[in-house]
Amino acid sequence: MRARVVVFPIKGRNWCFARTIGESVSDSQSASNIPSTFKQLWQKISSSSSSTETAAANAQLMNRAWAALEKAPSGSLKSKIHGLGLRLLSRVKPSEIFLKSIPKEVTNVEVVYPSSLNARLVRRRLRHIALRGTVIHKKFFYGSVTLLPITTAFTVLPLPNIPFFWILFRTYSHWTALKGSEKLLQLVSDSSENQDSSLAVVDGPQTVSGSHSSVGHPWVLQPSKELEQLLRSEDANVGLSPSTISEICKTFDLHKIDVLKYQKSL
């Protein structure tokens, strides 16, 4: 399985790292298993053990249940909870969203970047965000697991245990980002000492083709003249304009909301 990652400066020293949009088969199949009520969700969670791996798996269930809240009638309790959730999710760092998009099934990664950037610098920045993710998300994952027993005390209230569900979701989110970090670091660091002297840089069209896989590396650096032209008229210190970001997202099939977060992050 190949992951296509787009990398480009978005504001000052802030770089955007985003994977192209692609719905997996497992995501489509899991939609049919979404609990329709909080009671059903709680029954599935409480019926399982409290191990770390089970907590992460159950949090994935909560992640899928989010789709049910989106369809709730306006003004209802579910709709208000959905609004609260949106405000909380808006604070999630864009690097976490990116790392969560790298599943364990990925065997190689294609890195698309502006042709004016140095290939080694692009790969170094990609390795840095992966290495940093392994440290940060491991720390917050265990911190979230520690908070889970505390939030269960709120189950005595007659309202949905929002703190518990949120911490459960964050546990799964950090766990997924941690696994994505480890996978990405493994791919871009494979035999790094031998490959630094001959980087796998591929010139040509942006469409992934079978010829690219013949390079033999778990990663391929793809300089893009099209991306370079989109960035050329912008001031990197001021940041990209909304119109340019929209055009990049449209051209390379990226989530605009996730890309905009990089512009606001430090």
Question: In words, what does this structure look like?
Answer:
This protein is an alpha/beta fold and 266 residues long. It has one domain (2-264). Helix content is 55%, strand content 11%. The chain has 11 helices and 4 strands. The protein has helices at residues 25-30, 38-46, 52-70, 77-89, 94-100, 119-151, 162-188, 192-195, 225-232, 242-252, 256-264, and strands spanning 2-11, 14-19, 108-114, 219-224. A 4-stranded mixed β-sheet has the order 2-1-3-4. Helix 3 crosses helix 7 and helix 5 (94-100) packs across helix 7 (162-188). The longest helix is centred in the middle third of the chain and has 33 residues, at 119-151. InterPro entries: Mit_KHE1. Pfam families: Mit_KHE1. One of its GO terms (biological process) is proton transmembrane transport.
